Amino acid sequence: MDTTGDLELVSIGRKGRDAMRRNRVPIVAHFAGFRDRPSFEDVLPLVRLVSDEYEAGTYNQVDIIFTRFVSTLVQRAEMVGLLPIKPTSDTRGIPGSQFIFEPAPDVVLDELLPRYLGTRLYQAALESTASFFSSQMVAMKNATENADDLIEDYTLRYNKARQANITSELIEIASGAQER
After folding, report:
1. Among 5, 49, 120, 146, which one is least packed by beta carbons within 10 Å?
2. Count of structural domains, the chain
3. How far is CA 102 from CA 55, 99, 107, 108, in A?
4. Domain membership of residue 78 as a residue range
């Protein structure tokens, strides 16, 4: 049973793609992922795909799901609407509709849309990368602490076994000397 409706997905990275395949979500495009230090140029093919398809009317809404970096120990999956752009209710400092667009508003928006999308997608890529490295760092710290605890435990066990062997040998030597 397909519960995704009209949902289509562009995946970035292997894990997301595999999860969506298991859930039978249609994937229209896949990007292998970004380097360890994503650059703005890395997101440009994705920006082109999203803006072209949205402008062509293929999609009436575009959302992005990514891992937001909150702190070293906290990362949250978040869904943010990219398109259509919704005006904010915060209009402080904006005097009515007294704007004069030069060139025409359509030309300005055609220029701004890819830049807006690029900035938002680049931010998401950076936050996801920071979240990944933070999770990796915490996992490695925990693994190191666990390994240190194991080393300490096994060292203690080894020393106890060694001490028991030495004590046993001393008792054998002492009892052998008494028998003579």
Report:
1. 5
2. 1
3. 22, 10, 9, 8
4. 9-88+102-142
